[in-house]
Amino acid sequence: MKKRFSWQNLYLIFVFALLYVPIFYLIFYSFNRGGTMTHFTGFTWQHYTELFSDSRMIEIVVDTLLIALLSSLLATIIGTLGALQIYSVKRPVVKNAILSLNNILMVSPDVIIGASFLIFFTFLGFKLGFGSVLLSHIAFSIPIVVLMVLPKLNEMNLSLIDAATDLGATNFQVFSRVILPYIAPGVFAGYFMAFTYSLDDFAVTFFVTGNGFETLSVEIYARARQGISLEINALSALMFVFSLLLVVGYYFLNQYNSSKRTRKRQRLEATQIK
Amino acid sequence: MANTIISFEAVDKRYGDTIALNDINFELEQGKFYTLLGPSGCGKTTILRILAGFTSATSGEIKFKGQKINNLPANKRKVNTVFQDYALFPHLNVFDNVAFGLSLRKVPKAEIRRRVLEALRLVQLTGYDDREIAELSGGQQQRVAIARAIVNEPEVLLLDEPLSALDAKLRTAMQVELRQLQRRLGITFLFVTHDQGEALAMSDEIFVMNNGKILQQGNPVDIYDEPINHFVADFIGESNIVKGKMVKDYLVSFVGKQFECADAGMRPNEPVEIVLRPEDLVLTDVTKGKLTVTVDTQVFRGNIYEIMSHDSANNQWLIHAVHKATIGQKVGISFGPEDVHVMRFGESEEEFDARLETYEGEEE
Amino acid sequence: MKRFNPAYSFLYILWIVLFVIAPLVLIVYQSFFDISGHLTLANYQAYFGSGTYLKMTLNSIWYALLITLLTLLISYPTAYWLNQTKNKQLWLLLIILPTWINLLLKAYAFIGILSQNGSVNHFLTFVGIGPQQLLFTNASFIFVAAYIEIPFMILPIFNAIDELNPSFVNASRDLGATNWQTFSKVIFPLTINGVKAGVQAVFIPSLSLFMLTRLIGGNKVITLGTAIEEHFLVTQNWGMGSTIGVVLIVAMVIIMFVTGERRKKGRKGE
């Protein structure tokens, strides 16, 4: 809007540069013919072709996506049911107690979650691997789903449910025809957050993964400790594009939803004017 | 003119292509209670914001005691505002809210204390100084907002629909209080509202606005009795408006009949609009009435009966009657020549005033 | 929903019992066992008795404080000015976008940028300072940690400023406050909850960023998180690891309590 120069804009540009330079730096060197992240000697796709012929890496990517998809789906189902449960609790004391328990995993540091889950799985004699990683990811994704769905439930007008019941809907019909459509944006946001949590997680997975099963984060950590490998740069470029697509897709879906909401609100306000 | 404190000269305000204010001119005198009255979106709040310094005019001049203040920032202006949502700082208690402006100016502590308590006394909130804002009712918050503004001894107090969030009873009480407070303080109040009842009850002068323009300015009685056009007549009070023709001075025709009236100075046979206020219409026998109407509906309002009826030409007539009528029955209505108010199409306020002067002098 | 069937939320309750309560109980339980499986208080004696652990804890808290402070200093002005831009939601999204990039990739990028022959050293050589040891220093750890946490600090502050009723700013100006007075007496106090939420979101993870201490800090900085990881996955002394874990949990509870919103009853807008 303001085209004139201002210190504020300069500062914002500085912060954006700070945030993005490292990412573009990574991507830039993924095309480096020389094997280092310091001297750019020429353009090549070599690191990408290496990445695509690395069957171990591809297996890890598939595993990571599988964990993310499965864990976020299951976490969304359990979390939504949990939110409904919390919503239906009438006594404030009980409600706050459940909410506090729900939030423990939200605020706990990753290492604590990882370490305590490791003790838990070992205590049960559960074999570490795909199963333990999946269960852990479901476990730490549930609270975020609850936190996304609950506000939607709380802002829902109670007379909607009474009206549906009054019109002859059964409990299940009330749920599927009235509640679910209403909270759908929250459920969707919860699923998206759970998905990104899972993709992003390193510390918890690192603790509970055992030997023989790896996700991308764990693999990157292992390789990064050995030094620079431009295959990782190529991978990060691909992941950046993937995240970008996810976020842009999510943003536009949200915009669509919220513009629907705004229109609804405007209509509401119009009827309130005396 | 010596007492003029605020003046707007040819002020325009545009947001992109939308015109919020169109050629606004007015003057405010010291110590009077002014009201900007109009429907939402008419530009009344924009005038207030320009005067307070929250936004700037696109063109035109805003003067404070003859000095141009267009570019003076809000914190340097000797006006204070009572906000529609009160805007009381939630992190400060009542005392600190009221003391806010004084403490910024490094007024000595003891004097702050004295003046804050005095302001709270003025708005009848003695003893509330250490309450939290959230503990107060809407009406109390409103008084704190007023106290916070007047404690700075502004020369002009701007009030942006301060009563709109209150319930009807409290609103009426606050109208009286505000008016008394203004008289006691002797400073200029500029009050913004969309409630015509509020405007009529409180003001010395009313500016009626619509679509970014001031349509009419005058004291409440003038505005009510002699609305300048259809919009003002319709917006202020309830009215019956019918089309008619000015036969000659003091004679107008409508609904196929000719009636005496108190207006003059128009072209012969000029098409006009006629306003008749419902409380000026008196129910009578068909034979004695000047007009004959059929009663459609009747609602008892406690002090009056609100009667909707129609005449032979299908004009709707709203009558406030003391006595009951019978639905479906034909009744007569009568009114005096003074009750017939004639409005010309497209007449500006200046033309209206000029025309009135041409014949009103003769009567006295 | 008066008759919501509890059977549906069975899984949720099961989750609370198995994955919230049980692990917490187990980590406390585990902290009372030594490396050979004997019930003992030795871990706590070791922790409070030897200066090393206490010093490490203080060190970790000190670094977390520095990281939080640096993040806050960068984030508050960003959030504030971001709020004044057109399309602010889009810009905010761009601020958040990097958080969707895996944390390890960002850490990895800094290995390249800060390395002996990296771009920063190129620049330092260019301006005549000459190459410096940047990677594997305490400063690099703080900087990279702050880099990673910045979006988590900006977001809550941005939201707090966004929710701030513009009337408050107008009212303050109207009452004679200058820009700075408006900021210090109205805007900042009214957005302090966003700052608290941001501090919460940054400080606690900063205590436990073990991957950064390893990749960027070169094992020079030992945080509580590094110690826990070390005991669990390297030396296999789970008892000691759990003890430090319990300390971290206590620290977390204290932080939550200190920065918790002590809401005044019925405050407007809540």
Automatic annotation (TrEMBL), chain A:
<feature type="transmembrane region" description="Helical">
    <location>
        <begin position="232"/>
        <end position="253"/>
    </location>
</feature>
<dbReference type="GO" id="GO:0005886">
    <property type="term" value="C:plasma membrane"/>
</dbReference>
<keyword id="KW-0813">Transport</keyword>
<protein>
    <submittedName>
        <fullName>Spermidine/putrescine ABC transporter permease</fullName>
    </submittedName>
</protein>
<keyword id="KW-1003">Cell membrane</keyword>
<keyword id="KW-1133">Transmembrane helix</keyword>
<dbReference type="InterPro" id="IPR051789">
    <property type="entry name" value="Bact_Polyamine_Transport"/>
</dbReference>
<dbReference type="InterPro" id="IPR035906">
    <property type="entry name" value="MetI-like_sf"/>
</dbReference>
<dbReference type="GO" id="GO:0055085">
    <property type="term" value="P:transmembrane transport"/>
</dbReference>
<comment type="similarity">
    <text>Belongs to the binding-protein-dependent transport system permease family. CysTW subfamily.</text>
</comment>
<feature type="transmembrane region" description="Helical">
    <location>
        <begin position="60"/>
        <end position="84"/>
    </location>
</feature>
<feature type="transmembrane region" description="Helical">
    <location>
        <begin position="12"/>
        <end position="31"/>
    </location>
</feature>
<feature type="transmembrane region" description="Helical">
    <location>
        <begin position="130"/>
        <end position="150"/>
    </location>
</feature>
<keyword id="KW-0812">Transmembrane</keyword>
<keyword id="KW-0472">Membrane</keyword>
<dbReference type="InterPro" id="IPR000515">
    <property type="entry name" value="MetI-like"/>
</dbReference>
<dbReference type="Pfam" id="PF00528">
    <property type="entry name" value="BPD_transp_1"/>
</dbReference>
<feature type="transmembrane region" description="Helical">
    <location>
        <begin position="104"/>
        <end position="124"/>
    </location>
</feature>
<feature type="transmembrane region" description="Helical">
    <location>
        <begin position="179"/>
        <end position="199"/>
    </location>
</feature>
Automatic annotation (TrEMBL), chain C:
<keyword id="KW-0472">Membrane</keyword>
<protein>
    <submittedName>
        <fullName>Spermidine/putrescine ABC transporter permease</fullName>
    </submittedName>
</protein>
<feature type="transmembrane region" description="Helical">
    <location>
        <begin position="134"/>
        <end position="158"/>
    </location>
</feature>
<dbReference type="InterPro" id="IPR035906">
    <property type="entry name" value="MetI-like_sf"/>
</dbReference>
<keyword id="KW-1003">Cell membrane</keyword>
<keyword id="KW-1133">Transmembrane helix</keyword>
<feature type="transmembrane region" description="Helical">
    <location>
        <begin position="237"/>
        <end position="258"/>
    </location>
</feature>
<comment type="similarity">
    <text>Belongs to the binding-protein-dependent transport system permease family. CysTW subfamily.</text>
</comment>
<keyword id="KW-0813">Transport</keyword>
<dbReference type="Pfam" id="PF00528">
    <property type="entry name" value="BPD_transp_1"/>
</dbReference>
<dbReference type="GO" id="GO:0055085">
    <property type="term" value="P:transmembrane transport"/>
</dbReference>
<feature type="transmembrane region" description="Helical">
    <location>
        <begin position="12"/>
        <end position="32"/>
    </location>
</feature>
<dbReference type="InterPro" id="IPR000515">
    <property type="entry name" value="MetI-like"/>
</dbReference>
<feature type="transmembrane region" description="Helical">
    <location>
        <begin position="61"/>
        <end position="83"/>
    </location>
</feature>
<keyword id="KW-0812">Transmembrane</keyword>
<feature type="transmembrane region" description="Helical">
    <location>
        <begin position="90"/>
        <end position="114"/>
    </location>
</feature>
<dbReference type="GO" id="GO:0005886">
    <property type="term" value="C:plasma membrane"/>
</dbReference>
